[in-house]
């Protein structure tokens, strides 16, 4: 093979020559594997069609105003809460107003965890001198049952806890202080390398007799915003409280522990898990004109954590999914395949909405061509990540030249999304696709009180919805 692989595509009458370094095709999947671009004869009107979609989004887009209402009027939408039900009602009404062919709800039972009063954390040193630090309960945690005061053991991995003498751990807090690996270019990879301590830290701590788990927040930002997120408990293992410390608080606790290994930490949380609640996925669809039995799903998760408005996580994904269908209608396009927008419930602390959607798809013997998920924030578009065989990834990459004018041409193998993953086993779609945007700022606000509407840029948001609509247009026309 030559050093450069030349790819050509006729775009609106212009011959484009694309040079892709061959070495780039051998990168590890974890970093995103650029796919070889297969030849495809796209219609010369496709570039004009995409331009029409982007014009509609940038000049008359509705995502931003929809997000303003969802985040400002309804606000936090943790599953089982009254606000989550308000969001369901909003989603259904918004899809109906957009004039989709069919709008309906899928019933699903979801967990109902309540944070309770604001958490309190304090480092207590010599002579009972205390330093208050920002903390928050991890999602699903049990309460402390009043004030819980104990010594602290700092670790950097789950394995380290397993190898500690039981006498050193028993009756103390385990403090997981492994930071993000800031050498990684993709923050998502750093998140994946640190999140096990949040998810399973309380389990391993309890196995060794600890009274609770304190976890460094999942971010590279240095600030006073603790990051919540789901945690797990295991059958037959005592449930101990789990709390996140802000990165500044974690740094301070670590520093003080070095000076005084005998200091204590006092934690107070009043969270509780109530009985499951009835909730819904919200579904709207436009029926395909030629192949109505083939479905393209696009979605985001309607629930959010309770600390803020859930703007980037994942209000943006919800409004972009609705907007993708609206843009096709507004631009005058009738998709050849059926296109379905889904607002999934309970991604954050259970994924029951995604599982129920997949179960019903299998029960109804549906044929899913592809599924797209937007759950990485509403920042500037970059492209799409694809889960599928190499030939399928290559077929999707053939659309890159059409998406390149809109900076959404980075089509690589990689993770798609949590809510669409169950479809793989249920109905075997040809591709699971994740909308990829500039992620460098995402984990600064992810799962924090800072995830608010003012952090979303109108143009970035509308460009994302148009990018998704454009890919749907191409998938609907050419298939896979």
UniProtKB/TrEMBL annotation:
Residues making up the signal peptide according to the UniProt record: 1-24
UniProt cross-references to InterPro entries, sorted A to Z: CPQ, Peptidase_M28
Domain Peptidase M28 intervals: 281-463
Domain of life, source organism: Bacteria
Keywords from the named record: Carboxypeptidase, Endoplasmic reticulum, Glycoprotein, Golgi apparatus, Hydrolase, Lysosome, Metal-binding, Metalloprotease, Protease, Secreted, Signal, Zinc, Zymogen
Localisation: Endoplasmic reticulum; Golgi apparatus; Lysosome; Secreted
Subunit organization: Homodimer. The monomeric form is inactive while the homodimer is active.
Protein name: Carboxypeptidase Q
Species whose genome carries this gene: Hymenobacter artigasi
Lineage start: Bacteria, Pseudomonadati, Bacteroidota, Cytophagia, Cytophagales
């Amino acid at each position: 093979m030559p050093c450069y692989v030349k790819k050509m595509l006729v775009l609106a009458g212009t011959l484009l020559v694309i040079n892709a370094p061959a070495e780039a095709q051998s990168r590890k999947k974890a970093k995103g594997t650029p796919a070889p671009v297969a030849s495809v004869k796209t219609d010369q009107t496709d570039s004009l069609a995409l331009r029409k979609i982007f014009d509609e989004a940038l000049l008359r887009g509705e995502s931003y105003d929809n997000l303003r209402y969802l985040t400002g009027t309804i606000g936090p939408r943790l599953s089982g809460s009254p606000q989550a039900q308000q969001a369901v009602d909003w989603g259904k009404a918004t899809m109906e107003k957009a004039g989709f062919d069919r709008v309906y709800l899928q019933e699903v039972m979801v967990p109902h965890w309540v944070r309770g009063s604001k958490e309190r954390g304090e480092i207590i040193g010599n002579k009972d001198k205390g330093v208050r630090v920002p903390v928050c309960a991890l999602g699903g945690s049990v309460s402390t049952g009043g004030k819980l005061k104990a010594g602290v053991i700092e670790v950097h991995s789950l394995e380290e806890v397993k190898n500690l003498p039981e006498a050193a751990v028993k009756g103390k807090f385990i403090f997981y202080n492994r930071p993000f690996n800031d050498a990684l270019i993709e923050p998502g990879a750093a998140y994946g390398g640190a999140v096990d301590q949040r998810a399973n830290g309380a389990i391993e701590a309890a196995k060794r007799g600890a009274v609770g788990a304190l976890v460094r927040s999942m971010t590279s930002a240095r600030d006073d915003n603790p990051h919540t997120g789901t945690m797990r408990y295991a059958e037959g293992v005592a449930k101990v409280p789990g709390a996140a410390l802000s990165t500044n608080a974690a740094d301070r606790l670590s520093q003080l522990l070095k000076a005084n290994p005998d200091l204590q930490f006092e934690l107070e949380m009043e969270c509780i898990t109530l009985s499951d609640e009835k909730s819904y996925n919200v579904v709207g669809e436009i029926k395909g004109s030629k192949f109505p039995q083939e479905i393209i799903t696009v979605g985001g998760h309607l629930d959010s954590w309770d600390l803020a408005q859930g703007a980037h996580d994942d209000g943006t994904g919800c409004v972009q999914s609705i907007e993708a269908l609206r843009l096709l209608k507004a631009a005058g396009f009738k998709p050849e395949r059926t296109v379905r927008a889904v607002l999934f419930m309970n991604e954050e602390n259970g994924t029951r909405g995604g599982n129920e959607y997949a179960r019903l798809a299998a029960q109804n013997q549906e044929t899913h061509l592809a599924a797209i998920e937007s759950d990485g924030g509403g920042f500037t578009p970059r492209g799409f990540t694809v889960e599928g065989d190499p030939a399928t990834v290559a077929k999707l990459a053939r659309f890159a030249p059409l998406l390149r004018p809109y900076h959404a041409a980075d089509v690589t193998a990689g993770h798609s999304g949590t809510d669409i993953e169950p479809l793989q086993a249920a109905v075997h779609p040809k591709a699971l696709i994740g909308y990829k945007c500039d992620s460098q700022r995402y984990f600064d606000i992810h799962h924090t009180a800072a995830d608010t509407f003012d952090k979303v840029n109108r143009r970035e948001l509308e460009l994302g919805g148009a990018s998704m609509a454009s890919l749907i247009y191409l998938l609907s026309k050419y298939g896979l």
